[in-house]
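Subject: GNAT family N-acetyltransferase

B.,
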Amino acid sequence: MTNDMTIRRATVADASSLAAISLEVWLNTYIRDGVNAFFADYALQHFTTARFEEILGDRNETVWVSQNVVGIDGFLRMSANSPAPVDIASDLEITTLYVQPRHHGRGLGKALLKTGLQFCLDTGQLGTWLAVNAENEKATAFYLASGFEMAGQTHFTIGDKAYPNHVLQFRLDR
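Prediction pasted inline below.
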């Protein structure tokens, strides 16, 4: 991690940057063989400034950003009252942890994750959970190396297509 990075709570003024990072990371991670209308329509409907303004105004949502001297290069979104698809004690979900690919390996993901785990402690949660695409081996390895454990399986659905996801949990009570 470099010294020119700050972790802070996101504000509504960050909504367009969060949308842009989401588009970049999601397309870069999951759409590797060419963009078709099916995935483009999904991304352009879900990763919008208006959607992030809505998220930032929701009391069940907490978003932190990693900001360098130029702008935002990553973010962590946690959703309260979000029951896991498998039997887990916590209903606090790590909904999104995105870091721009060119900033991977600088410790931004670790710093954001540490902030989220501290949030769990501060709010009295027993832990947190997340779902990660089963084919995203790099992200799965990152979470397992960070102390998460496999808790089950679920699917991410776009339209009538389902994609297998691992459900991982981090327990603070062990």
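The longest helix spans residues 15-30.

T.
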